[in-house]
Design goal:
mainly beta; elongated; 31 strands; 3 helices; 20-stranded mixed β-sheet; 11% helix
Length: 391
């Protein structure tokens, strides 16, 4: 029998939600001059809508109707007078087809110093293929623009957004607190350079849920100064996997701790779950990390710790990583490796990895047992572990 108090509470909640929606002020970018033809520069209209919403003391909605809206790089500055601004996108935002127009701006859509902003729905088309081609040719190219970045912001939601063909990173969360990314789709060529799907750094309380990422670099990359990161129900591939690092880019660097990655699938990726650091001194660390319920499908390096990362042998030859890695658990990780060595722990000779746990790991290579490789790594194996633990 239904509890009458519960029924009353639900009714009041619905009334409250409807009231909140009805009191929000809506700004339609089409009414402010934006053209849905994909050719007319609509940047000014979007910034006008933001200025109005940011100045309002009431919750505000910036509505983007169906159609393709061309935007140059746009900076959405806070703080605002209210903490409930929603970009509700029914259409597609399109970057200039000539990558050089925004290629040295750093960001295409940049939110900074904001609180309580939601990006809901829509497609963000970075049109980055021209820059990728330039890089592939070996020419001197623009550095590239991240599609969507939040900087120094709190209480952010990115929901139901699709990011296509970013010039470089698709979504960046930098120096933020309390961020939820859910139902996101990222799509770029598996050969597109530096197109990380979601990059998080210097942030706490970030959650990434129910997302599908196909790109040319890390599906999710985790930089320094991260606490309380939760990643769940993410499909990755093509791409370079989910990576903590590169760490120790700087000598003085805050660590990464309390990270959970669970219920993830990797298909044809370069890596599965990875921790990597430059092979040079650093004050950084990575601890209290859980990789749980992962499925590997033909992944080149399903489980890897690489503390001797030194691309081009520049800036680190002959040195060892100062990053201390500890309390890392790999639990219920099954599937297939595309290489003989499915588990590789290549840790720092000065600060060996400690308290590594393998629990119910079963990885094969061409229907046969794979191999594990350990260097300066210590820990335990529990349950069935294949390949045989080298810890």
């Amino acid at each position: 029998m239904e509890n009458p108090i519960s029924r009353i509470f639900l009714s009041l909640l619905i009334v409250f939600i409807n009231s909140a929606v009805s009191t929000a002020v809506t700004y339609n970018v089409a009414d402010l001059g934006a053209k849905p033809d994909g050719k007319t520069d609509s940047t000014k209209a979007f910034l006008s809508g933001w200025a109005e919403a940011c100045a309002s003391v009431k919750p505000s909605v910036i509505y983007v109707p169906a159609g393709r809206f061309l935007l140059r790089n746009a900076i959405f500055n806070g703080p605002c007078k209210n903490r409930a601004i929603t970009f509700r996108i029914a259409g597609t935002l399109v970057a200039p087809s000539d990558y050089q127009v925004i290629g040295n701006a750093g960001n295409w859509l940049f939110f900074r110093h904001v609180n309580g902003v939601t990006i809901s729905g829509g497609i963000l088309d970075g049109q980055g293929t021209g820059l990728w081609d330039c890089k592939a040719s070996g020419k001197v190219c623009a550095s590239g623009a991240t599609t969507l970045e939040f900087f120094n912001s709190n209480n952010i939601v990115v929901s139901g957004v699709t990011s296509l063909n970013a010039q470089i990173f698709h979504i960046v969360i930098n120096d933020c607190n309390n961020v939820k990314v859910q139902g996101v789709r990222v799509s770029a060529s598996g050969h597109s350079p530096n197109t990380d799907g979601i990059h998080v750094q210097k942030s706490s309380g970030v959650t990434i849920l129910d997302s599908k990422i196909a790109t040319g670099d890390d599906c999710v990359s985790i930089g320094p100064a991260i606490t309380n990161l939760w990643i769940e129900n993410v499909a990755c591939g093509p791409g370079h996997g989910i990576s903590i690092g590169s760490l120790s880019k700087d000598l003085e660097e805050d660590g990464v701790q309390n990270v959970t990655v669970k219920t993830v699938t990797f298909t044809g990726t370069q890596n599965g779950v990875r921790i990597k650091s430059w092979g040079r001194p650093s004050t950084g660390f990575a601890k209290n990390i859980l990789f749980q319920h992962a499925v590997m499908v033909n992944v080149q390096n399903p489980i890897v710790i690489d503390q001797n990362y030194c691309p081009g042998e520049k800036g680190c030859p002959g040195q060892v990583s100062g990053v201390q890695i500890s309390d890392v658990t790999y639990q219920n990780i099954h599937g297939t490796s595309a290489t003989q060595v499915a588990v590789k722990f290549d840790c720092s000779s000065r600060y060996p990895c400690s308290k590594i746990t393998l629990d119910d790991v079963k990885l094969s290579y061409k229907n046969h047992a794979a191999e594990a490789s350990c260097s300066h790594a210590g820990g335990t194996a529990e349950g069935i572990v294949q390949p045989t633990s080298c810890l």
